[in-house]
Amino acid sequence: MLLLDIRNLTLELETSQGLIRAVDRVSLSLREGEIRGLVGESGSGKSLIAKAIVGVLNQRWRIKADRFHWCGVDLLQLPFDQQRKIIGRDIAMIYQEPSKCLDPTALIAEQLHESIPNQLLKGGWWNRARQKRKKAIALLHKVGIKEHQSVLESYPYQLSEGVCQKVMIAMAIAKNPKLLIADEPTTALEASTQAQLFRLISSLNQLKGMSVLLISNELDSIARYTHRLSVLYCGQLVESGETARLLAQPFHPYTDALIKSVPEFQPDLAPKSQLYALPGSIPTLQHLPVGCRLGPRCPNARKECVHTPALERKQHHFYSCHFPLQYKEPQ
Amino acid sequence: MSRLLEVVSLSKHYRKQLGLFRQTTIQALNNVSFSLGAAQTLAVVGETGSGKSTLAKVLVGIEQPDEGEIRLAGQAVTLSHYRKYNHVIRYMFQDSERALNPSQKVGSMLDHVLRFSTVLDEPQRQQKVLQSLQQVGLMDEHIDFYPHMLSAGQQQRLALARALILDPKILILDEALTVLDPTLRAQIVNLLLELQQKNGLSYLLISKNLRLVRHISDHCLVMQHGQVVEAGDTEQLLNQPQHPHTRKLMGLS
User: N or C of chain A: less Cβ packing under 10 Å?
Assistant: First the structure.
């Protein structure tokens, strides 16, 4: 069954310059036990989508969707408190800058205890504190922190960024969520800690069957750990499909450019040779081009590109482009 | 023939006060030596706290070394003639958005650099500013822009223009490429490679992205706790890492 099923999600913001459509009809579906990658450059609306799923978007945003199902229940139709209840029970999120997202005035132990829901504890209220302490230590061990005592007794500023991120993950998995949303979990970390975290996330996925939505702006760092990928550009979904197939045969020129701009995916590229790069830069949200938003930068844009292409399907591979690469039109 | 930049047994430590009377010393750089030739790229890799940024700061003169010598084209460098040698080594910061003055227009920002370190007169400076904007792919109209009006990629280009305006021989890139989006990074990398081929610029690249290091650098230094644990030809070093620390950095990245 589909865990999360979003059809044509549109997020709009009303400003003095008019209505800005930051996310334009994005569809996203997640199966149980799947790691899904969401890739896009800064300002492409990745974090907005994540926030819309957890329901923490600012009041000013207008959320519209044809379908916004969580386990078969349409979240947008539900009254607010029920929506919060479901999201609070099933979805957990970890944020980009862990040391800034943790409470600087509280000990790690207090913050961890707070994130453990009472429903998961057995017995009466009198042994709750002891159980919580035990559970907090178990959680820290689970995310790979061995010196639990010193970590529990410290404030976030005393810990390194990597340890803070692990504590965040421990807090997120405290309630055994069905879906973990990781919003650029590794940008602040160094290479060796990054790999550790990704391995931790994928082991959580394998052992507990937890679905993960992994958000990143670099294709190369998450490609190895994801089953499926969705690529966003400027709030539009450009391509989605199984990771291996998408990397082997991209249909959209933007995905193609992303893959080609990473030296790692090009083993026969001579050192110091020019990388493939799209001209121009990402448009600002106030000055979005009409139709396909890649239009002005696209190497094979034509007249038709002023109309927004519909999402087309080829087996399990979705793309939205009028002139997909390596695809011959039927005669 | 002497190399463009030679660094001989450079050391630097910081004192940290731990109370009224106690203090500890942190050895940020410990006996670091390397050399860099013209039109070459040297990559410095290592974990946070391994002394990469201290090395860069010592080289541009933000910090003074305790021991050791920096030689530019065979000549020893001291802080006292900073004005003379800041033409040769320029520094590009990690976060260009925050490294640019938000209340200063692009033109005057570049002009200030020239006014501080050259003897050019007004029209000459103007010409130089336009020339350096063109060099990095910005337009003449951008002179009247404030930094916030530029996109992230353009800001990065502006930071590059500010570094290149004095026609340096060496450019230090302190994680300048890591924060960029992939397609923008490819653009900037192409620009840097082109400048290296055309003008014979040398780069000191400080990065944790080993894929990028492999692509653009000729030589590589691996640092740990302020010491160079492994150095050599990038291709060779990354294909056959000898030191366990290098292997740790590679195997997990």
Answer: C
Nearest CA in chain A to B245: A192
Whether B84 has a pLDDT exceeding 60, the answer reads yes
Contact A269 B215 (CB under 8 A): yes
Which domains does chain B possess? 1-88+170-190+202-253 (3.40.50.300), 99-167 (no CATH)
Which single residue is written with the structure tokens 């910005």? B138
Which chain A residues in 3-42 lie under 8 Å from chain B, judged by CB atoms?
41-42
Question: Tokens in use for A292?
Answer: 């396909």
Question: Which ipTM value was assigned to this complex?
Answer: 0.75
Do B249 and A278 make contact, defined as CB atoms within 8 angstroms? no
Answer whether A118 touches B (CB < 8 Å). Answer: no
Which residues in chain A are closer than 8 Å to B210, comparing Cβ atoms? Answer: 191
- Packing angle of the helix pair A191-208, A161-173 (nearest 10 deg): 10
Contacts of A276 in chain B (CB under 8 A): 186
Q: How confident is the model at residue A105 (pLDDT cuts 50, 70, 90)?
A: very high
Please check whether residue B233 touches A, CB under 8 A: no
Chain B, nearest residue to A268 by Cα: B215
The CATH homologous superfamily for domain A2-226 is: P-loop containing nucleotide triphosphate hydrolases (3.40.50.300)
pLDDT per residue over B115-133, tens digit each?
888 888 889 999 999 988 8
Chosen from B155, B178, B181 to mutate, greatest number of chain A CBs within 10 A: B181
pLDDT tens-place string over residues B183-236: 778 888 888 888 888 888 888 988 877 778 888 888 888 888 888 888 888 888
- What is the model's pLDDT at position B253? 45
Domain with CATH 3.40.50.300 in chain A: 2-226
- In sequence order, which residues have a C-beta less than 8 Å from that of residue A85 and are 6 or more positions away? none
DSSP 8-state assignment for residue B152: H
Tens-digit pLDDT profile for residues A24-39: 888 888 888 899 999 8
Residue B227: Cβ-neighbour burial (10 angstroms; 0-12, 13-18, 19+): middle
**Backbone angles phi and psi of B7, in degrees to 5:** -120, 125
Determine contact: B202 vs chain A, CB below 8 A.
no
Copy the structure tokens of residue A92: 């957990």
The mean pLDDT value of chain A amounts to 84
